[in-house]
Structures are given as structure tokens and as C-alpha cells.
Design goal:
The protein has 552 residues and is mainly beta. The protein has no helices and 32 strands.
Length: 552
């Protein structure tokens, strides 16, 4: 999920990779086979030997040991990804601890984002305590309610985006001022995409009678002086999940510009969660079409300026009620747009000119919003299949080629990797057999090889596309030039047994060739500028590392 190689991580390895750990003592757990020694000593790290896998961080135990622990003594709870900083430090997204943790140059691990004293951070639109409200202003990152972070991506200027999967939001983290703030996302769901860029003085409301609102654009293309763009129906008790305020009733509607006055109107009810443009009027009032000069009398005057469609100023977008539903990934493309993999909405979405346009708009660029598989084709006609349920697992991965702009997508439950080319207007499968999970076809053509629930993607220093093949417990590499695929880490289709609560590193293959080592649901891959591959070995609660072998 890391989309850009940022730095070289200095060699932080000690001679020994942590203390040995023992087997579980549950009486119901059968004893380990005779050839398994749960007290094996950890191997010595030698990163000068290509192709050998070692543990970089974590003992394998699930948990958290407060601050300032040596990385090899640290505990994680299902880490999912990592990102390297330009100063040589590394962020680790500790998914089930709801934290972002930083490995310093001294090898010490500390939490930098996420409240360590919150047992469950919640997933509502606002934090449970108003003093920790990071919607309105930046707050101390150790007090924010982070819920299952899945991705961290750099921004120009030194800030970082954090994709907060179970918060349904994107946060911006500034390590210099040590603050964070929600910048994209409000309520869980899908609130539509922008079709037009409308200013407040272009929107008017008329016929506010019996809670029925007609929304007009005052200056329309084609010479029409007024143009109805939507209708809103609602009750006085429903205000995007809120209540009526001060005798004035707030409603909202997606701005959809009609090309011709006779085109069918989009109609929204209070159950649509189409909270994009806030309008208000006194109940029972009836008015003629309000001229543009008086528009602010009918449009909420205290609304943020620059609000447009589902967009709004990039700092913050959440003011415009953008809705995400468990976004997995976000990354800035070479075109300056921000791309978001919106998992349960089954869409790839884009915030235009994210860093520069105060009226940026969010829009869907790929996906229909319905999960499934209907073959390759045009981006907006192609279905993806990311896990969707009341309590899903993380699903989907994305990396953007910073030269070509092609968006590579791990289409997890279709068990394939796809390339989205927005210039050519195409979605093309490049690896895997659609809807056919398995292990067959390794070391051959990528389109003849089976994957099983691919997740994170990263472009390596050798130009290959690396895939965290989660349920195959392996990392695969796709040669984008030849179309060939091979396994580079993990014993394909195998993982460690449950004989030890957290097996020592020697038992899971540390110090052995990477393809003989064992991984357990690896969800993330990353690289440093020295070419070392880091694997978030999620269910082993470790970060693993290897130096890549250089081919002939």
C-alpha cells in the first residue's frame, strides 16, 4: 500500500534478532511434533546475503508494550504496511492496535499517531469526546481516534496521508508540528460524485413547501436563466442523521447539472445520504426562483466557502460531506490528483488537483459501485470485488506508476491484479485467473498463475510489481515487461502451524532462503532505496526483511 519509495533505511540490525519464545501451554493444544523445537535460537542477521529472510521488528507476540521499545522486543497486533521516511526512519501501520508507530534511527519503536488509551476508537463521523474533535482543527496525534489504519502515503512538503479504514476517513499528519486532522470523509456510506463545480452564488432554492425543495442553478449553459438541477424530499426530523436546528431545516443534495431543461431530474429522499450541498428554508415557505444576488439568503450562510459538488477545499474536504466506506488505500498520482480505493463502495475515486485546487471535486474513475466480475473493459463499466459485509476484512490494494500514471489494482476477491489506464480508458487483467484462487502456475506467465486474495502492491527497484498474496502466504513478483510471475518470499500455500502461540523466528524460516520461509497472511510490502524488501507478516505480528537476489 506504500506508493512511493521514500528513503534508505539505515542498517539497524543487531547481531541477534530477539529472544527465543516458548510454546503455548493450553492443555487442549496438542504437543508439537518431535522435529519442532519451540526454543530454537534466533539466527544472526546477515543482510549481505541475497534471498535470505529475517525478522526486522516484532517478537511475534500479539499486543503492545507502550513506548520506546527496541524494535526486536516490540509487540504488534496485525501490522499491515510500512513506509520509509527520507531521514531513514520507518512508519509501521499497527492495524489492530489502531496506531502508526515509528522506528527511529536508534532502533526504538514509538507510537506517533493514535490514542493508546482507547480500547475501541469507534467509527462514527465524530469522536466521542468533543475536545478531541479533529474535524475542526489539527489536534495532538496521540489523542486522535484512529481505527484500523491501512495506508500511509507522503505528500509534497513533508506531510503524510493516513488512510483510516474503519474511520472511513483520510487524515493528514504533520510530523513537524506534530498534529493531525481529518481532511476527507464524514459519514460512512456513499454520497455520490460531483458532476459540476458550483459556487454558492450559483445555487438557489425555490418552492420550499411541505418539505419539498427544488434546487436551481441560476446561470445555466445554453442561455437558460434558471435551470432546475435536482429535487429534495425529506422530513423535518431528518438532517443527514441530525435534527432540525433553530426552526430552520437543513437538507442536502448532490449537485448534478442537467444538459437540457427537459432531462430527467435526480430525486433524493432523506434515506439517500446525498449530503453534498446544504440548503435551508423555513417550513411552509414558498418563493419564486431566487436571483443570484439573494442566493445566500437561502443557502446556509455559514457554510464553508468554495464548496463544490461532493468536493470542496482540500483542507478539509470533509466539510462537503464526502462519504467513504472503509477506504483501503490513497495515493497522489503524477498528475497531481489524489486516488482513493473506496473498498465497500467498490470504486476507485479521484480528488482532482488535490494539492492546488481549493474547489477540488471527488469523482469515480473506475468501478460501477457493484461488486462482482464482468470482465475487462472501460473503467466506469468494470466491476471490482472487494469484501463487503457488516464486518469485512481489509480488501483491495493500489499502487500508481509514477511515470506512466497507470493505476495497478489488487482485485482481491476476483483473485487478480488489474491495470487501470485512464488515458486509454481501459481496465486490463495482468495477473491471476479471474474468480479462481489457488497456487498453480508459479514461475510462468502471470495470466496463467493463480493468486489467492492479493492485497498490497508495490513497484520494486527492479521495475517489477510486487504482490502481497495474502491467502497464499507469499509475496509474488510480476515482470511488467515480460508478463512472467514468480514467488520471491514464502512457501507458496503454506504457513506456520498453531503449535506455538507465537513461533520463534527460526521456526518460521529466518535465516533460510525466503522461498523456504513461512509467512502468515502477509498484507503489505515495501522497499527501501537499497533494494531491500520488507514484508508485513500480519498474523505472525512481525516485519520481515530480505535483500533481493539480482538476476543474471
Amino acid at each position: 500500500m506504500t506508493h512511493r519509495i521514500e528513503a534508505v533505511l539505515p542498517l539497524l540490525f543487531a547481531l541477534a534478532l530477539g529472544s527465543a519464545v516458548g510454546c503455548g501451554d493450553d492443555a487442549t493444544t496438542p504437543p508439537p511434533p518431535p522435529d519442532i523445537d519451540c526454543e530454537l535460537a534466533d539466527p544472526v542477521a546477515d543482510l549481505g546475503t541475497p534471498g535470505i529472510l529475517y525478522t526486522f521488528a516484532g517478537t511475534g507476540a500479539n499486543g503492545w508494550l507502550r513506548q520506546n521499545n527496541d524494535r526486536l522486543d516490540a509487540r504488534f497486533s496485525q501490522p499491515v504496511d510500512m513506509l520509509f521516511r527520507s531521514d531513514g526512519q520507518a512508519y509501521i501501520l499497527d492495524w489492530n492496535n489502531h496506531m502508526v508507530r515509528l522506528v527511529g534511527l536508534d532502533g526504538k519503536l514509538n507510537t506517533v499517531v493514535g490514542n493508546p488509551d482507547v480500547p475501541f476508537p469507534g467509527d462514527g463521523p465524530k469522536p466521542r469526546y468533543p475536545e478531541l474533535d479533529d474535524f475542526e482543527a489539527p489536534v495532538d496525534p496521540l489523542k486522535c481516534y484512529l481505527n484500523h489504519p491501512t495506508e500511509m502515503a507522503p505528500l509534497p512538503g513533508g506531510d503524510y496521508l493516513i488512510t483510516c479504514w474503519h474511520n472511513h476517513k483520510i487524515r493528514r499528519y504533520d510530523p513537524v508540528s506534530n498534529t493531525e486532522q481529518v481532511i476527507i470523509g464524514s459519514t460512512i456510506g456513499y454520497g455520490g460524485d460531483a458532476r459540476v463545480n458550483l459556487d454558492w452564488d450559483e445555487i438557489v432554492v425555490a418552492d420550499a413547501e411541505n418539505y419539498h425543495y427544488r434546487v436551481y442553478r441560476a446561470t445555466a449553459p445554453g442561455g437558460y436563466p434558471e435551470q432546475e438541477i435536482a429535487r429534495v424530499y425529506g422530513s423535518s426530523e431528518y438532517v443527514d442523521g441530525g435534527v432540525a436546528l433553530g426552526g430552520e431545516y437543513y437538507y442536502a443534495v448532490t449537485a448534478v447539472l442537467l444538459e437540457n431543461p427537459g432531462d430527467p431530474l435526480p430525486i433524493f429522499s432523506e434515506s439517500d445520504y446525498s449530503a453534498e450541498i446544504f440548503i435551508r428554508a423555513e417550513p411552509g415557505a414558498t418563493a419564486a426562483v431566487t436571483p443570484p444576488t439573494a442566493a445566500l439568503d437561502k443557502i446556509a450562510p455559514d457554510a464553508p466557502t468554495g464548496l463544490s459538488g461532493t468536493g470542496g477545499g482540500p483542507f478539509p474536504y470533509h466539510d462537503s460531506k464526502v462519504h467513504l466506506k472503509q477506504p483501503t488505500d490513497s495515493s497522489l498520482g503524477p498528475d497531481g490528483h489524489l486516488y482513493i480505493l473506496d473498498q465497500q463502495n467498490q470504486r476507485i475515486r479521484r480528488v482532482r488537483d488535490f494539492m492546488t485546487d481549493p474547489d477540488g471535486i471527488i469523482e469515480t474513475v473506475a468501478g460501477t459501485g457493484t461488486f462482482g466480475y464482468n470482465g475487462d473493459g472501460a473503467p466506469l463499466e468494470t466491476r471490482f470485488h472487494f469484501e463487503a459485509s457488516t464486518n469485512p476484512q481489509v480488501s483491495g490494494g493500489m499502487v500508481i506508476h509514477q511515470v506512466t500514471g497507470i493505476i495497478f489494482i489488487a482485485d482481491t476477491l476476483n483473485h487478480i491484479v488489474r491495470a487501470v489506464d485512464l488515458v486509454a480508458g481501459s481496465v486490463t487483467t495482468i495477473a491471476g485467473i479471474p474468480e479462481s484462487p489457488g497456487t498453480a502456475g508459479d514461475n510462468g506467465p502471470a495470466l496463467s498463475a493463480q493468486l489467492h486474495s492479493p492485497l498490497d502492491l508495490e513497484i520494486g527497484p527492479d521495475g517489477r510489481l510486487y504482490v502481497a498474496d495474502e491467502y497464499n502466504n507469499a509475496v509474488r513478483a510480476i515482470d511488467l515487461a515480460t508478463g512472467m510471475l514468480e514467488t520471491v518470499a514464502g512457501t507458496l500455500g503454506q504457513t506456520s502451524g498453531a503449535d506455538c502461540f507465537y513461533p520463534p523466528s527460526a521456526l518460521i524460516g529466518d535465516g533460510k532462503p525466503a522461498t523456504q520461509a513461512l509467512l502468515n497472511h502477509p498484507r503489505g510490502v515495501a522497499f527501501d532505496l537499497d533494494g531491500r524488501l520488507y514484508i508485513t507478516d500480519t498474523f505472525h505480528n512481525r516485519i520481515r526483511v530480505m535483500t533481493l537476489e539480482v538476476g543474471p
